[in-house]
Amino acid sequence: MPLSPRVPELAALDVLVSVARLGSMGAAGREHGLSQQAVSARVRSAERQLGIKVFDRTTTGVTPTYEGGLVLEWAAGTLTAAEHLASGVSALRGEREANLTVAASMTIAEYLVPAWTVTMRRKNPKVVTSVRLLNSADVAAHVLGGDADLGFVEGPEVPAGLDAREVARDELVVVVPPGHPWARSGPISPAELARTPLIQREFGSGTRTTLEQAVPGCVAPLLELTSCTAVKAAVVAGNAPAVVSSLAVAADLTDGRLVGVALEGLRIPRRLLAVWDRDRGVRGSAREFLDIAAGAR
Asked: Given pLDDT bands bounded at 50, 70 and 90, which one contains residue 213?
């Protein structure tokens, strides 16, 4: 099946996703070993090919447009599939001496796993780590099914059959764009949050599950998306609130792209957990990766 001419090359998609995750062209350039000008040129070229403006540029960085957020979400899935293809080909060619498959929830995968994999590569270059980006419910299913050696989840409970170890903590925060009424109103009540349609992560995500336990009776979402990047873009484009991980919006709050809104009498902290099959245990390269994640706190 011939590909549409609107589909950029994988390298261009990789740069787009890095710019969105890191919030700036310069940071993405450092990650890819490119100059800021080269990254900017690749982004402009990809936008022309797509026929879509992916980012809004400001003096403080870049922010995905609403359409760009959707493109970035699809691009991330394409890159994951490409990584699986490359890993499979390497295995068939006998190129890898060891293999480690890690399944991670979206927030952990976007904001914590990259640094852990770099450390793992430096400490043990013979191990090639494959990362699968899933929501927390699917992470647990992959670990229990033997499709992943180690998992990382955000949900408040440890699924049956898994052992767990805390590797980090974060907190769910309410965010709105600067022009939203909540940005000027001060704290809101949990009841007001519950009756307001939110831009939310999909059902089964750790963020969604934690919110629904902390604030029961939330009305149906205004929009459901499967990545933090897409949620943040929709918040800005739709002038609507969301509840997201503090890890995902730290830079946005500092730069003023988003505004945090306090909840009256309520905070929503949570533990980020490594999980593994209780019967199989965790050993070898999976144990080494777990120790790296836990030691990074």
From this structure: very high
